[in-house]
Amino acid sequence: MSTRARAALGLLVASAASAVAYYAFREPAPDVVPRAALPVAGKLVLNGVTVVDVRMGRLAPGMSVVADAGKIASVAPVGTPPPDPSAETVDATGLYVVPGYLDLHVHALGHGDPSDDLALMLANGVTGFRQMDGSDELLAQRRAGALPLGRDAPAVLAMPGELLTPFNAGDPAAAIAEVRAQQAAGADFVKVALLAPDVFLAVLAEAQRIGIPVSGHVPADVDVLAAARAGMRSIEHLGPSPGLLVDCSTDTEALVAAAPRMPGLLTAMPVRLPFLEALADRFLQRLLVNPTVRVTATEVHRLERVLATQDDARCRSAARELAATGTAVVPTLIRLRTQRFAGAPEYAHDPNLRYVPAETLATWRSVTREFDEAFSPEQKETLRRLYARDLELVKLLDSEGVRLLAGSDAVGAGWTIAGFGLHQELDQLAAAGLAPLRVLQLATLDGAAFLGRAAELGAVEVGKDADLVLLEANPLESVENLHRIAGVVRAGFHHSKSDLEALKHRVAGGGVPMADAKAEISELVAAWAHFRDQERWDELLDAFHADGTISLSWYDGPYAGFVAASRRLASGGGAILKHRLGTPVVETRGDRALSEVDVTIMVRSKTPFGEVDTTSWARFYDQLERRDGRWRIAKRTAVYEKDRADPVDRAGLPDEFFAGLEAYPAPLKFLGSSLQRMGVRLSETAVLDGSPELAALR
Fold first, then answer.
1. Cα–Cα nearest to 369, from 293, 291, 281, 297
2. What is the C-alpha to C-alpha distance for residues 380 and 474, in angstroms, rounded to an integer?
3. C-beta atoms surrounding 38 within 10 Å
4. Cα gap 454→99, rounded to integer Å
5. Are 84 and 127 in contact (CB under 8 A)?
6. Which SS3 state, helix, strand or coil, does residue 445 take?
7. Which of 352, 424, 484, 550 has the CA that lies 20 to 30 A from 525?
């Protein structure tokens, strides 16, 4: 039975106690993607660029940055040295150059083909990363130069061996032996999780003795400051939730004593249980998406106690003590936020989900539904308040000199996408109150120093690696400008903005073939009209996602409410409704799509002047998503062009019928008056042809 499966099986038994154990037991997939050899780059010149000094926060405009053989050879005013006709020259006038971004908490390798995740990282300016789970196999691949990396990938800057858990470090003696073995295998550091306190402290002591750093998760029943004093090199996720906030409490000892402990069963499973491996792996994959789902009501109550007993003076004192130890903190704020705000619309409707495989996205959505059902509104509010306090803590840690580092916890964490996740992390660091320069330093200079690579990375200086990011706007003015990437230089090779977009397009192009997706979407859009006109309400409801919305002439809101209202109108009689649709024009992007279709809406209604046929010409703009392998509409907006009314009786309509039409918008005057006679008010948000709202849809 694999390490990962055994761990997951234990978690099946004790999931409530292991909510902090994400990324705990993962081993590499058996298939190894062949490495793409990285050639030596030629000479590259970035001409006219503004160099950003990340140490002092100064700008040097009008500079020429020359890279040769993957190293920065010169940083000087344009024209010095003289132009080299053999060099690749990039006109960088108006652009800003900063060091390549470093993501110091990623799980990109060892789980099948990593090329898509690595490409997304590079496309987002990540030129180096710390791999946070390793194995003997990955370490052997690195020694052999066989890691699956190439020109379209960032550099692996550090990697551990296999995660230390109760299964390979069940007691102090076993743990010490594993630490020694990992150092001998070439691990850069040891990562720990789920260890008993005595084992955890034995690991720290032995690692200090032989000179290998320890990073990872502090056991929930160990004080974070005690771990720092014992020599822990970096603490991930602000410690075991609520982690460092416990040291800010006036009730620290009691809160540590009340922390969930790892059951003894987790250290007593040496036998192989093959028939449970598949179940265990499936469970683990879901747990890693959002460990908060497994937090119990008792633990939520403990979190409330933590929040109720916060003391700023104690917190500041703890921060100073932490700074004195030199221990780094990798907050992974975006990881904490996506766990505690899992149901937030900005995650479910993130346009970057088109880069996520359909199967992964389906798991994320399923686990999020579990989250929504697991906690009461009051408990969710506690989780939100906990995150707000974490933001305050990060600001305080920075102000007291604690070494902070930027890390995203991609790949595997729910709603956290490789590359994009680091940018979300930078935004959260800014939300915590860190200035743009500090945020930039965390993702460049400080990360390089932590890794002992300051001589090679972290600044735009002669002799350092030519790993750079070109930006369209000044990053010292706003963190938002760190997202405005105009190009990336990796190992001396220049990737233009169009190159980076092509990388992202390649990743988004996976999954169902485009022709099949368009056919499925066209059929869905056509079926919607049939279901509505035939009053097949259950099938009509299923045409949209459960959280879908619709904006029409008479309704603007949740789609389920529209179906319910349509059903009520139909039950009242008095009108016959038909829709005729043209051929949809569909554009797909991964698991998202846009559809535009012409629609003719025909309503026969009774008026005091006889029966009238009202015809409205419009277009449906649909935003669609593929979830759990099925395309459904997420949002529909109707755009109205014109309408007319015709009497059913050839005798025509009296002038009174036309009275008051001027009160309605021209494209909706007849349909609006027909709706009014049916007791339905025209929506104030109805989109008209030629309006600014239409431009926004496009």
1. 293
2. 38
3. 17
4. 12
5. no
6. helix
7. 352
Residue for token digits 């038994």?
13
Tokens encoding 358 = 């359909």
Helix (H) and strand (E) counts for the chain? 24, 23
Give every CB contact of residue 583 below 8 A, 6+ residues apart in sequence: 522, 597
Contact by Cβ (8 Å): 633, 548: yes
Cα(551)–Cα(620) distance, integer angstroms = 10
Q: Are strands 592-607 and 214-216 parallel, antiparallel or unpaired?
A: unpaired
Distances (CA, A) of 222 to 10, 199, 218, 232, 279: 21, 11, 7, 12, 31
CA 538 to chain centre: 33
**CB-based contact 470:487 (threshold 8 Å):** yes
Averaged pLDDT in 10-residue chunks for the chain of 698 residues:
42 36 32 50 96 98 97 94 88 98 96 91 98 95 90 95 90 96 97 92 97 95 94 92 91 89 51 45 70 92 96 96 97 96 89 86 88 94 96 98 97 94 98 98 98 97 98 98 98 95 82 65 90 91 94 93 92 80 86 90 79 89 87 93 78 68 72 71 74 61
SS3 helix, strand, coil % of the chain, rounded to 5?
A: 40, 25, 35
The residues pairing with 88 across neighbouring beta strands, listed in sequence order, are: 44
> Three-class SS string for 673-695?
HHHHHCCCCCCCCCEECCCHHHH
Helix 172-184 × helix 197-210 angle, to 10°? 40
Which amino acid is present at 238?
L
Using the 8-state DSSP alphabet, how is residue 414 labeled? T
